[in-house]
Specification:
Elements (H helix, E strand, L loop, with lengths): L5 H11 L2 E7 L5 E7 L6 E4 L3 E7 L2 E6 L2 E4 L5 E8 L3 E11 L5 E12 L2 H6 L4 H17 L4 H6 L1 H16 L4 E12 L2 H84 L3 H23 L12 H30 L1
Antiparallel strand pairs: 1-2, 3-6, 4-5, 4-7, 8-9, 9-10
Helix pairs in contact: 3-5, 7-8
Subcellular location: Mitochondrion
Keywords: Mitochondrion
Main location: mitochondrion
């Protein structure tokens, strides 16, 4: 009969229920370090893919079991830690942070990590979840304290990069790599949120007024430009109209002058080439002279009576002398033209 002492029995029970810290998937999709039961030493074990088992022999680190078949020595070898090599997400709890312009923000985030060294992850830190979470919170508070509220809202991506870099520097001794850190929610105080809403409304009203004024300005410019073009076109039309009228009048005067010149030239040629033409012209001039004096009393109340009204022959002589003087003048001009031609 074997009798076990109470102390030995408690030790055996305790060693059979030794928990480990490993990465498991929670119901909400995030992975956390949780306590699970260690795999028992059944001599032959199959290690799952993307998992590392830490084996201790007689209480001292012996080796890391890779995925696949593994053979253990009974009673001597013990699987002490199980590390998942998959990428895991840790939820960073909500915390308060004060910006450089003294605004208190409530922020939370998600940290994505992966175990790159199973030995350091097992023996380098006691509680990786707690250590990473606390470091992420303090780093985030430190980074936010250097920025204003506007910079925090505008430069969230650079803030995530800075926090990831600081976490990687500290977690390399723990065998953990921080892949990225994402700020999930930023909750400013209610009064600050109301002020931001008013600022956005004021900015939108300002833009609306600017756009409205720009529209009125452009409309006035377009109307003025249209009137200017209309006046220019009207003046151009008037200009061309006047030019056309002037050209028409000039052409008419020229044609009339040419016709008159040709008529006079034909009359002069007829007088020179017709026998007795001079006497006929003299007679016609005298008749026109007498006829003109006859019309004076009909067209005006003022009557001009030439000297020697009773002497009709003197009238005739005056008319003939005028015609003879004109004829001599024309003969002199013709003679000068002939000499110039020679």
């Amino acid at each position: 009969m074997i009798v076990h002492s109470p102390i030995v029995t408690r030790r055996l029970a305790t060693s059979a229920r030794v928990p480990i810290r490993t990465l498991a998937t929670s119901s909400n999709g995030l992975n956390f370090f949780q306590k699970t039961q260690l795999p028992a030493n059944t001599i032959i074990r199959f290690v799952p893919q993307q998992t590392a088992w830490i084996v201790e022999r007689m209480g001292k680190f012996h080796r890391i079991l890779q995925p696949g078949l593994a053979i253990l020595l009974p009673f001597l070898d013990k699987i002490q830690y199980v590390q998942s090599l998959k990428e895991n997400a840790i939820e960073v709890p909500s915390q308060s942070a004060i910006t450089s312009d003294n605004v208190t923000l409530e922020m939370d985030g998600v940290l994505y990590i992966r175990v790159v060294d199973a030995y350091k992850a097992s023996y380098g830190v006691e509680n990786a979840e707690y250590a990473i979470s606390q470091l992420a919170q303090t780093t985030m508070r430190s980074e936010i304290g250097q920025l204003t509220l506007d910079h925090v809202l505008r430069e969230r991506q650079s803030l995530n990069v800075n926090i990831t870099a600081v976490l990687n520097d500290a977690a390399k001794d723990w065998g953990i790599q921080c892949l990225r850190y994402e700020i999930r929610d930023i909750h400013p105080p209610s009064n600050v949120l109301e002020a931001m809403h008013r600022q956005v409304s004021a900015e939108r009203s300002k833009r609306a007024e600017i756009l409205d004024s720009e529209g009125h300005r452009q409309s006035a410019i377009n109307i003025a430009e249209g009137e200017r073009q209309s006046q220019i076109l009207a003046s151009e039309a008037t200009k061309f109209k006047q030019i056309n009228l002037a050209e028409g009048e000039a052409r008419a005067i020229l044609l009339k002058a040419e016709a008159t010149s040709k008529g006079i030239e034909q009359i002069a040629n007829a007088i020179r080439n017709t026998p007795g033409g001079g006497d006929a012209v003299s007679l016609q001039v005298a008749e026109k002279y007498v006829d003109a004096f006859g019309k004076l009393a009909k067209e005006s109340n003022t009557i001009v009576i030439p000297a020697g009204l009773g002497d009709v022959s003197s009238w005739m002589a005056s008319g003939l002398s005028i015609y003879q003087n004109l004829q001599k003048s024309n003969a002199t001009k013709d003679q000068n033209k002939i000499e110039e031609t020679k």
